[in-house]
């Protein structure tokens, strides 16, 4: 089953300050898609926007975090995406423990660290 969340500007502004983060150069998660595989693991496709400025300042990862702060999966990003904004990258095989019905997805850049997270309810 496919579930789609578009990170709407107004709720993100009110809850997480996403536009302020974007102005400061931090990465912003714009969209999340998640599909559950037959084995029970999850595939996440995450769209990130960031003003990449070369190898010293680019969005270099995103991660899925459980409500208790446990990192459930990380997708390392190995190069700048200066000419591809926003960009989407996926990771499969993310195991989400039984009873967890929502997670936080956040992105990181080399200069600022982790940006504001976006809540995501699992279907």
Characteristic terms for this protein:
123 residues; mainly beta; Immunoglobulin-like; five-stranded antiparallel β-sheet; four-stranded antiparallel β-sheet; 2 helices; 11% helix
What report would you give on this structure?
The protein is mainly beta and 123 residues long. It has one domain (2-121): Immunoglobulin-like (Sandwich), CATH 2.60.40. The protein is built from 2 helices and 9 strands. The protein has helices at residues 9-16, 18-23, and strands at 2-6, 28-36, 42-49, 59-65, 71-76, 87-94, 102-109, 113-114, 118-121. Strands 4, 5, 7, 8 and 9 form a 5-stranded antiparallel β-sheet that branches. The longest helix has 8 residues, at 9-16. The relative contact order is 0.26.
The CATH homologous superfamily is named Immunoglobulins
Number of domains: 1
The class by helix and strand makeup works out as mainly beta
C-alpha Rg (nearest Å): 14 Å
Assign the CATH topology.
Immunoglobulin-like
Shape: elongated
Unreliable parts: 1-24
User: What is the level 1 CATH name?
Assistant: Mainly Beta
């Amino acid at each position: 089953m496919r579930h789609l969340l578009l990170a709407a500007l107004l709720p993100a502004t009110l809850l997480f300050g996403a536009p302020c983060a974007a102005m400061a150069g931090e990465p912003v998660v714009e969209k999340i898609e998640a599909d559950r595989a037959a084995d029970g693991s999850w595939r996440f496709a995450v769209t990130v926007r960031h003003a990449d400025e070369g190898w010293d300042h680019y969005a270099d990862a995103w991660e899925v975090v459980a409500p208790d702060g446990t990192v459930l999966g990380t997708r390392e990003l190995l190069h700048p995406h200066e000419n591809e904004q926003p960009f989407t990258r996926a990771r499969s095989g993310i195991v989400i423990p039984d009873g967890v019905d929502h997670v936080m997805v956040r992105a990181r850049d080399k200069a600022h660290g982790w940006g504001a997270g976006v809540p995501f309810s699992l279907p």
